[in-house]
Fold Carbamate kinase.
Amino acid sequence: MRVLLALGGNAMTNAAGRAAPQDQIAAAAVAMEAVAGLLERDVEVLITHGNGPQVGNLLTKNELAASVVPPVPLDWCGAQTQATVGFVLMNALDAALVRRGIRRRTAAVVTRTLVASDDSGFIRPTKPIGRHLPAEEAEVLIGHGQTWEDRGKGWRRVVASPEPLDIIDGPVVRSLVEAGFVVVANGGGGIPVVREPDGSLRGIEAVIDKDLGAALLADTVGADVLVIGTDVPHAVLNYGTPDAKDVGTVTAGQLRAFAAEGHFASGSMGPKVEAACRFVERGGTRAVITDLDHIATAVCGDAGTVVVAS
Ligand code: ADP
Ligand code: MG
């Protein structure tokens, strides 16, 4: 069985969302214990991950150091975080494998994902990134061509969140998986690139949704199961109300009907539900949304919100 595990931000930060190096190392150790447990059962595992807190830290450094070191664009931040998170996850997984006496090699792939230069997201950016700034500071950055919005508690940069169309480096990832490597790939949804008229690729300042990127990667590498690991054990109907109800096993059709009724928030659970539905609709056996404690049960037994084709 081939499984793609998509780790959310909480798998790489402390409980308060802080992403200091020691927080990321400690969180990765917990998540990779679960992965080592799966590898012990002969499940083939690939890993992808979010990078919101890590990119947020890089953007703050860019802003503070702009007069000394030239700021790097958002696609570079994506590439940098794929490398550092990949490195941290590889070290954590290697340690967990050695403890179990499992001889498997790990690899991390800098992964580019194609988006359309005319994606509607570029006309009306919606994805908030980085920290809140006072209006005067935001104005300077608006002057540099960025889009910032008044979010009440300060101004925040918003960027396009275009649809992932093709994982450019998917064939490399697949080859490594087939050669027996445990691969970390497409972190942060992939580094968004557009195709130029001459066929070359150019990185672009945007953020691909990590879960939608995961659904496409799972499809690209022929995964049987997509596990979306987050900080809640289930997707929930009437979330946060007295009528809250966990979603157990559902078909993609049923889950889409719940989504249409507005049960899943657009910036958080919504894309996970969409990713799970897409994956099974494109032929995946099943997708599971659950928390880190239930990853192993989600793959080998019954836990979380399980989405099946019919
Ligand atoms: P990650 O960083 O793991 O990608 P997110 O924070 O983006 O996770 O999404 C998970 C969060 O979604 C949960 O912590 C929860 O607060 C929120 N959420 C919103 N709507 C729902 C819902 N209907 N069911 C469960 N969680 C929900
Ligand atoms: Mg999150």
Summary: The two ends are 20 Å apart (CA to CA). The longest strand covers residues 127-133.
